[in-house]
Design goal:
alpha+beta, Ribosomal Protein S5, domain 2, five-stranded antiparallel beta sheet
């Protein structure tokens, strides 16, 4: 099952607001790379909305396919299980990873009860993620095989453009004595990538394996 995160790299964010019986729930979802980054986002929400009563949060780091995935949630003074976990469920239910969600609540004077709180916190987080999806601000996170392609400076721009035009993922280009393109491909597609590279370089350059890593990929 595909997993998604916010487009634009760490720090990319999306916001949503929900009002329930005069209580305001302000949700911020931010793409993060580490647990420390996630906690920094939560602390910033506390400072930004200093007069809010609660700052409930959840974050997911890493893929569900890896045992090192981290999931955390915090009710921040709301009844146990009524805030942090619903926020976390909103993230995982939409297959969102490498993100933190913080929902700051301004109390409106009316108690919402356990069920009301669960729905409100879940809906606030879901509204933010759905807004990102509807605005095409989500990208898939996929593990790809990585290759490097060494080229002369005079050919690098043209070849990079041709590879991108053919749908090849070019992660970047480093310029030193030669230009080195870093390419990513699905596991099992190495032969096709090699054939495409051979065609655009007239067989003058060859791919060098460089391991694998998680990359942003356009959702299908």
């Amino acid at each position: 099952m595909p997993e998604f995160t916010l487009r634009g790299g760490p720090g990319a964010s999306v916001h949503a607001e929900l009002e329930v019986k005069r209580s305001r729930f302000l949700c911020t979802v931010v793409r993060v790379a580490t647990e420390d980054d996630a906690r920094d986002v939560i602390e910033l929400a506390r400072k930004t909305h200093w007069d809010a009563r609660h700052h409930c949060s959840a974050f997911v780091l890493g893929s569900t396919t890896e045992p090192s995935q981290v999931r955390r949630s915090n009710d921040d003074g709301e009844p146990s299980g009524t805030a942090g976990r619903p926020i976390l469920d909103a993230l995982t239910g939409r297959n969102l990873i490498d993100c933190v969600a913080v929902v700051s609540r301004y109390f409106g004077g009316t108690l919402l009860g356990t069920g009301g709180l669960i729905r409100a916190y879940s809906d606030a987080a879901a509204r933010a993620v759905d807004a990102a999806r509807d605005a095409h601000r989500l990208v898939a996170r996929e593990r790809r095989d990585i290759f490097q392609l060494s080229l002369g400076h005079s050919d690098a721009g043209r070849i990079e453009a041709e590879l991108r035009h053919q749908g090849i993922t070019v992660l970047g280009t480093d310029y030193g004595a030669r230009a080195v393109l870093t390419l990513a491909t699905d596991a099992g597609s190495t032969a096709d990538l090699a054939a495409r590279v051979a065609a655009v370089t007239a067989g003058a350059s060859r791919l060098e394996p460089a391991g694998s890593e998680w990359v942003d990929a356009e959702p299908e």
